[in-house]
Design brief:
Order of helices and strands: HEEEEEEEEEEEEEEEE
Distance between the termini: 76 Å
CATH topology: lipopolysaccharide transport protein A fold
CATH architecture: Sandwich
Helix content: 10-25%
Structural class: mainly beta
CATH superfamily: Lipopolysaccharide (LPS) transport protein A like domain
Number of domains: 1
Largest sheet: 16 strands, antiparallel
């Protein structure tokens, strides 16, 4: 049984090496185990677990790699990630990354920092689409930029256009000013605020 387990792990390792040559996919940890079933292979990394896929570096207490051609990476516990080319950093309780679609889904207490644009955003659920450069935030959303704070239950951040769309009781605070509406759009380059539906606000000169 021990020899069989070692053989399976060796097969997994060789499989990863072949893929790494094409996709810069590497991993390391203090401990590694593997399971194999019909149509399903899983690698489990524990103890200083770390995975790199192209420009994305992931670290967590536990990382599971599974799916055809190791498509899915599940990170659990004290998850830290960095998209190095775009200088985007995130922290979360749990993360699933789809290597084919290049989409990361963060669950639990989650924070995303776009350091290139000086933006910090938090939410209970975050979906980051690396290809489209669009991020969706849900539940208790907060976004901070300079002296501006945005809050809502739902938000879409379009990084290329530097636009933030807020809905679900959105409110924007700019220094001493306050803006509320059914829907709010913020131009994160100019800090201009556009409001739609049931608009209200307070501006202090």
């Amino acid at each position: 049984m021990i020899l069989k387990s070692r053989f399976l792990i060796l097969c997994f390792f060789l499989n990863f090496c072949i893929i790494a040559a094409a996709d810069t996919f590497t991993f390391k940890a203090d401990n590694m185990t593997g399971t194999k079933a019909i149509g399903r292979e899983t690698i489990i990394l524990t103890g200083n677990a770390e995975v790199r896929s192209d420009n994305l570096l992931l670290k967590a207490n536990r990382i599971e790699i599974q799916g055809d051609n190791n498509q899915f990476i599940d990170c659990i516990g004290n998850v830290w990630g960095m998209e190095e080319e775009k200088n985007i950093l995130f922290f979360t309780d749990r993360l699933r990354y789809d290597r084919n679609l290049k989409i990361a889904r963060l669950e639990g207490n989650s924070t995303l920092e776009d350091r290139e644009n000086d933006i910090v955003a938090k939410g209970t659920f975050i979906e980051y689409d690396d290809k489209a450069e669009i991020t969706v935030f849900q539940i208790s959303v907060r976004l901070f930029k300079d002296d501006m704070v945005c809050r809502s239950q739902y938000a879409i951040y379009r990084r290329n256009e530097k636009l933030l769309d807020l809905s679900g009781f959105p409110v924007v605070f700019k220094k001493d000013d306050e803006f509320r509406a059914d829907r709010i759009r913020v131009d994160l380059e100019t800090d201009d605020v556009t409001m739609e539906g049931a608009v209200s606000g307070t501006i202090k000169n």
